[in-house]
Amino acid sequence: MKRVRIGLDILGFFLLAFNYLMILVFIFSKWPKYWEHINYEYSHLTWLSSLNLILISLFCFLAYILEATPVKKTKLLGWFQQNLLGFLSAGFLLLALDEKFQIHEKLRERIFIPNQVGTDIPGIGAGDFLHLFIAILGLSISYFIYQKFKGIRLSQYFFIGALLSGLGSVLMDVTSPVIRNDSELSPSELQASIDHQFIEELIEINAIIFFLMAFYLLFSFRLKNKSMES
User: Fold this and answer.
1) 3-state class of 25 per DSSP?
2) Which residues are CB-neighbours of 101 under 8 A, at least 6 positions away?
3) Single pTM value for the model
4) Which burial class, exposed, middle or buried, applies to 186 when counting CB atoms under 10 A from its CB (0-12, 13-18, 19+)?
């Protein structure tokens, strides 16, 4: 049992350290063009984000399996809460696919913008309402997710940090102007656009890492409890 606890703690530290180390490698390996492995749609950071989202999906699913649910709840809210981690596992897997294949970007460029869907929302970039919708959906169920971390303070801190980082990233994304031709920008405007995207991507990956740690610690907590019972 002690070995299981130590192993889980080491794995948690490794996940956290690995992510931030990889981000530093991505940045400094292209210095002074620090943004090249960060900003673009199919960048190294996209790979890291996709990997983390798959891991989050996995840990949600494992925590869901370990969750003690001896009584089946028939009321809709009770049923939703009982199966929430399963829904989250599926949701994060979809986000991983979206991150890897840039599905939302293709929808925006090929459907939303050409058909003027969501292009006239004040303060929101053309076609970026989808990000805002996902953020609102996530916030609307955040209370129920938070309840899953009851008694795991570090998970609660990571989850709150993930929500704040994620909200900041979405707001930066949806309010940023869509630039179709970089040649139309002055050097200072181009650099400002690059830095805006760079900061946005770093905030987004930070949110993903915090979500990863929150759900990993939830899985770890439940697995440790199971090992104590056996």
Assistant:
1) helix
2) none
3) 0.88
4) exposed
